[in-house]
Structure formats: structure tokens, C-alpha cells
Amino acid sequence: MHTLAQLKSGELMGITRLKLSENLSSFPMEILSLADSLEILDLSDNQLSSLPNELTQLKSLKIIFASNNLFEVLPEVLGQCENLEMVGFKSNQINQVPTNSLPAKLRWLILTDNCIETLPDVLGERPKLQKLALAGNKLTTLPLTLAQSTNLELVRISANNLTECPEQLLNLPKLAWFAFSGNPFSRSNLEVASVPSLPSSSFTLHNVLGQGASGVISRATWTKNQSTFPDEVAVKKFKGKVTSDGYPEDELQACLKVGDHQNLVRSLAQVNEEDYLALIMNLIPNNFKNLGLPPNFKTCTRDTFPAGFTLSIEQTDKIVTQMKNVFEHLHSNKVCHGDLYAHNTLFDEDANIIFGDFGAATMYHMLTVEQQKLIEKIERRALAYFIEDLLSVCSDQG
User: Where is 375: in which H helix or E strand?
Assistant: First the structure.
């Protein structure tokens, strides 16, 4: 994090990345002094509602983030920024996306949690587009031109008002991570065989074990002696009404529909109170650790790994076999995970895996048979990428 004072003093000259969060209501024109070097501009968590036309002076700018501001229109000046690839305007009040607001080199567009009803056809005419996050808007249709988006790999359209499955996406050659729950076309009246419902007062939360887009997972113990569940459990408390992947209640239902599998985190019970939605799960043993790291700006949609991390052929083979079994289990229950990645996989020294994070999961039994086959094909592509990523760190290949 930088300060406006540092910027005005000239202390930041030559930097490539700038993050300012000081309740700004107007764009600090001093940012233009960084025109020769600035590549990443993060103006999230301010009170901004517009950007100046002078933004085009930032010739090296590749990435701009302006989440949690007051924008109602995606600024048209973005479309004039010749090297801009990544645009993130999550959690604003955007209801208009002008045709001219989408840069020619667009690779990554995040407009989650806004008020967008329609998108311009030109979105499908951005050939480099790889990642498109639109969850939590008011979209009733998607541009038919997205059928041209042959490099699109990750799409989030959950929690919108789409009345029909967007078939222009289903045959895209690279689409692998697809979340579409919480739309009229994907709503389900299916009664999921449920786990018990418990009051939130029945347990006490302790240390945080991890957190993601949809919630925080904590270790918990019971407030009263009981024999039904283990003494210690993990509780995922969902946060907010909508996340970057969709509605928390859809994640909960998908988890329950999948049921038990030896390589999935086991669901034990749920909390379904007003302002308190949670899933109670088995505690994962301490000897399990993350198999991968999330994608970065460079890889965009593909996982990364710590420097020097390797797997043997035997470990790789065992992990892949287990993940294939998980895949078959998920799709036999008509659930698309939507986020099949190494970074959502835990493993131990013996290459046993536990797969989790159902934030992007979608039940798809309500779709036509042909659509169901295409959904499975999309996620099978994610499985292939997962295998490819593991092979990239396999020490005995050759």
C-alpha cells in the first residue's frame, strides 16, 4: 500500500505497481507522473465514480483494479488504453458497460457484484479474453458473439437472471472452469438428502484454518458433550449474500448433493439460520498441505507452484488416479465443481488427496441431456489441465 503523500513528494517515481486506498473521491492526477513505468494500478476501496481521459497517458498500464468504489458506468477511457489487459471493477454500482470501454488487448474482465443487465456484443470480439467474471449482476442474456471467444478458459456467471443456458459458451474449445448456479435456468427443486441442521450455539469457533471467496473455515469444538460427531470439527461460515462465484446457499446445496467420497471433505451438518449459514465438516489432518498455488497475473487461469516444488512419477500417478475418481463421482451426481485446480487440493506425504472448495460448484441435472454432456466435457478439460500442471512439476518425466 502506498500513500498520496508519497506520490506527491515524488518518492514513488519509477515504480511499476501502485496501490492507493485513501477514501479518494477523485483521481489523483499525480499518478500521471508515473507514465513511463506504471504497469499495475490498484484504486480499490475508495469513493471514485469516474476516471479522467488522461489515463491514456499511462502507456505501460497493463492492469487496473477499482473494486469497492462508486462507478455506475465502466469508464470508456479504459478502451483507449493501448496495453491494458486486465480490468477489475468488482463491487461497484455499474449498470452500463459501453462498447468503447473494453480495451483491444483485454484478457481478464472482472465485473462481479454490480448491476449489469446487458453487455455489448463487442465483448466477443476481444480475441485474447481468457477470464470473465460476471457473478452477482442482473444479466438476462449474454452476447451471442461470445461464441467467438476461442481463448476463453474461465467463466463465472452465477447469481444472475439468465433464463436460458448460454449455449454460445458450451462449445468453446478452451473453456474449463465454468460456474453458473443461481440463475433461473439452473434453479433446482430437488430435495437434497440433507445432513442434520444444528444451531450455531452448538459449537465454538477457534483459530481460522483458511478462507476463500465464499467463506472462512475455522476449527471448532462443541459447547456440550455429544457422541454423534468428532470432538473437533471444521466449520465453514459463509460470508455475504453473493461471492465472486455465486450464492453461498448454492455452494452448500452442491456440497450436500455430492455426498461422501474418500477424497472429498466430509460434510457432517449444516447451520441454516438468518444471517448465519455454515457447513460443518470433518477436520482435515495437519499433515495435509496445498498441492498448488492459485494462478497469477501472468498465468491468468493456470495454477502455479512454489519454487523448487516437485512430484515423483509415483506421486503424480496416484494423485491423478484419485482426482479422476473424484471427477467421476461429481459428475455421476450431476455436479460441476467449476474450480478443479491443484490449489483446491490438499495432499499428504503418501500422495493421498482431499479435494474441496465448492464455491463455484453447480448442480446441472435440470439441463438437457446434450447440455449435460457439454458441461461434463468442459470440466473434463479442467481435469486435463490439472494433469498437465502436475506433469510440469514431475521430477522424473522424460
Answer: helix 369-391
Q: Is 397's pLDDT higher than 60?
A: no
Residues 348-368: tens digit of each pLDDT: 999 999 998 898 999 999 999
Element (H, E) at 160: none
Tens of pLDDT along 285-325? Answer: 999 999 999 999 999 999 999 999 999 999 999 999 999 99
Cα-Cα-Cα-Cα dihedral sign, residues 37, 41, 46, 48: positive
Query: In this structure, what DSSP letter does residue 186 have?
Result: G
Burial-class residue 60 by CB neighbours within 10 Å (0-12, 13-18, 19+).
middle
CB neighbourhood size of 344 (10 A): 22
Alpha-carbon gap, residue 87 to 109, rounded angstroms: 5
Residue keyed to cell 493501448:
82
pLDDT (0 to 100) of residue 398: 45
Is the pLDDT confidence value at 83 over 60? yes
Cell of 315: 506421486
Contacts of 397 (CB under 8 A, 6+ apart): 313, 391
Which residue type occupies 380?
A: R
Q: Which of 290, 292, 278, 291 is nearest to 234 (CA)?
A: 278
